[in-house]
Inverse folding.
């Protein structure tokens, strides 16, 4: 049932409904008309019987009358004029002393009557009249019955059609709801088996589209991943070649040049790390594991301080609690590296960064110029770079760091926020672990 | 001592060979896994530097074969991949250490010395810093020409810091350097040895990076 077509769903409901309401309306019209007509004809019959009884100088036993004769008494009129033109019988009363001379029915009765004069071969005139109003009433009654029935059927149909169309289109609304609730990064296939026939080709096309986008993204990520890794080989070449130079053979100025080259290589290497972080952030995360945070932070800080450009900055780690948290180890590493590297970059001159670890949060504070409240909203967006100058310590940020932090934090259920560092005066980034 | 370097990129291999030789090692350099297999079949090495991205067979394949045949030479992996999972795979296969490209030459030399010392401490060269002289082979420390008595674990910490002179060494890495001496060593055990060294050799020898680790400055 569930996976038949939308057309069948709607047909299955609408056809019985239309047939049912047509039958119902016909039934009402048929029986309503029949009962109205029967009443009218019965009344005529009774009047006729009564007239005949009177002509026979007798009276009808009221019990044998089918209708309440009084009600119809004035609706019918039968008069008989004899050969001399005198009124000899009047169904609505005895003829008066001054019997008027015969006048044609239409003349003697008002326009509200429909009358006919019948002449016998001997000259007697039989005049039969019926109130026009009676006919009108009959027509009205019949029309009312029919219209009421049709109106009821129409109302029922409209309500039912609205309901059934909505019900019939449920698979469509279900599909649209399925699509709506997918996250932007979810490119998995839609379920196909329980779809109705009309939607199967659409779902199939969507799935093939998702598949192509998925492949495309995968190729793109693999390209960035490969490119970032490939770049490290020439970087290694430059760094290793520079560091193999015997420094004792160089004058101070040349030593400085060589150090600058190495600093440039280190910066480039950090950029490749950032690109790799970015591609990893977009990939399926590795499974969660219990991670001891302090050693990760110590490793990250030691690595950063061993970069020549960062050597002048003082970085303190304060482990209040030796926290062990459930997360992806590489993600935690990338988050802390990005935040601490940022803090070093934006700290003052020579620069001080304080890193604090508790059971519930990691806080990274610096003594730089901080982040203005207006910029705090945008700082986690991609390329949402700080507009402040950072004292020439590695002037080229990639503009990716904080957006990576944000997406990595999200999938590890961390909460990242930025505020003003109370004691140091610069920026304070907090990663809540809960 | 004898070092085997397996690295396909000449421009990287060449400065490594030069630096290791300057540091007193003899280096055999090969460019792929097959040549590396030939090399270990005919010679004994004290240390192997292994690049993972090799042509035809990758480095992990060679490592698996090496350990599979019962050889236990110390192996330091050189790789462009830095993710923890890659590192774990290499270490699980029996690598002893791991260096991510682009690496620091001083760091490479320090790791080489540490591995050799771990395997057999006798042939490592003497290290001097200011008026402190350390002989890894004899396990002796001299300050201003006088022998100073330093307990074995403190000695390991001092060596690890001296070998990485000018670089911050995290407490965890220092605890790691005690591996084989005190397997239960934790990062705070290290503090005890550092304060011992300061008492014996001067307070300004080792600089603390608060909460992170220690550094012996270049000068």
């Amino acid at each position: 049932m569930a996976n038949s077509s939308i057309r069948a769903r709607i047909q299955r409901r609408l056809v019985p409904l239309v047939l049912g309401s047509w039958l119902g309306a016909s039934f009402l019209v048929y029986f309503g008309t029949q009962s109205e007509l029967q009443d009218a004809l019965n009344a005529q019959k009774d009047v006729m019987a009564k007239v005949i009884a009177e002509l026979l100088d007798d009276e009808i036993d009221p019990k044998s009358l089918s209708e309440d004769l009084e009600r119809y008494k004035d609706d019918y009129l039968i008069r008989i004029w004899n050969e001399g033109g005198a009124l000899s019988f009047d169904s609505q009363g005895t003829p008066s002393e001054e019997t008027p001379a015969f006048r044609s029915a239409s003349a003697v009765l008002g326009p509200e009557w429909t009358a006919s004069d019948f002449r016998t071969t001997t000259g007697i005139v039989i005049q039969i009249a019926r109130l026009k109003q009676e006919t009108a009433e009959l027509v009205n009654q019949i029309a009312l019955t029919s219209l009421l029935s049709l109106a009821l059927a129409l109302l029922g149909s409209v309500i039912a059609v609205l309901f059934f169309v909505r019900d019939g289109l449920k698979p469509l609304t279900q599909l649209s709801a399925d699509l709506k609730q997918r996250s932007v990064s979810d490119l998995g296939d839609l379920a196909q088996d329980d779809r109705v026939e009309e939607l199967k080709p659409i779902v199939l096309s969507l799935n093939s589209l998702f598949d192509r986008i998925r492949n495309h993204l995968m190729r793109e990520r693999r390209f960035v991943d490969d490119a970032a890794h490939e770049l490290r080989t020439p970087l290694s070449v430059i760094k290793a070649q520079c560091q193999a130079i015997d420094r004792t053979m160089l004058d101070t100025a040349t030593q400085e040049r060589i150090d600058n080259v190495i600093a440039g290589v280190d910066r480039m290497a950090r950029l490749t790390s950032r690109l790799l972080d970015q591609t990893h952030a977009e990939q399926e995360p590795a499974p969660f594991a219990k991670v001891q945070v302090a050693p990760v932070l110590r490793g990250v800080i030691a690595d950063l301080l061993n970069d020549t450009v960062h050597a002048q900055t003082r970085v303190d780690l304060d482990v209040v609690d030796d926290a062990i948290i459930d997360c992806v180890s590489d993600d935690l590493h990338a988050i802390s590296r990005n935040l601490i590297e940022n803090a070093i970059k934006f700290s003052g001159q020579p620069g001080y960064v304080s890193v604090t670890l508790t059971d519930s949060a990691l806080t990274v504070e610096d003594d730089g110029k901080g982040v203005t409240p207006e910029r705090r909203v945008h700082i986690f967006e991609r390329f949402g770079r700080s507009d402040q100058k950072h004292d020439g310590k590695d002037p080229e940020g990639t503009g990716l760091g904080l957006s990576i932090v944000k997406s990595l934090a999200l999938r590890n259920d961390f909460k990242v926020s930025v505020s003003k560092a109370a004691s140091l005066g610069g920026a304070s980034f907090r990663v809540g672990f809960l | 001592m004898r070092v085997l370097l397996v690295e396909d990129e000449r421009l990287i291999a060449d400065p490594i060979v030069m630096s290791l030789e300057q540091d007193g090692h003899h280096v055999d350099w090969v460019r792929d896994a097959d040549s590396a297999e030939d090399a270990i079949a005919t010679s004994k090495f004290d240390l192997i530097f292994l690049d993972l991205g090799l042509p035809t067979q990758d480095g992990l394949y060679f490592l698996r074969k090496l350990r599979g045949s019962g050889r236990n030479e110390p192996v330091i992996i050189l790789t462009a991949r830095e993710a923890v999972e890659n590192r774990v795979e290499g270490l699980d296969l029996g690598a002893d250490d791991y260096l991510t490209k682009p690496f620091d030459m001083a760091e490479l030399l320090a790791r080489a010395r540490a591995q050799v010392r771990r395997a057999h401490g006798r042939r490592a060269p003497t290290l001097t810093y200011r008026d402190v002289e350390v002989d890894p082979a004899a396990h002796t420390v001299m300050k201003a020409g006088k022998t100073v008595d330093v307990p074995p674990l403190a000695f390991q910490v001092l060596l690890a810091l001296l070998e990485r002179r000018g670089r911050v060494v995290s407490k965890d890495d220092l605890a790691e350097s005690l591996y084989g001496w005190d397997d239960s060593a934790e990062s705070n055990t290290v503090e005890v040895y550092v304060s011992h060294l300061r008492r014996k050799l001067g307070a300004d020898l080792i600089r603390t990076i608060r909460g992170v680790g220690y550094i012996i400055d270049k000068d």
About this structure: The first strand of chain A starts at residue 76 and ends at 81. Chain A touches chain B through 39 residues (CB under 8 Å). Residues 267 and 396 of chain A are 9 Å apart (CA to CA). Residues 6-55 of chain A form the longest helix (50 residues).
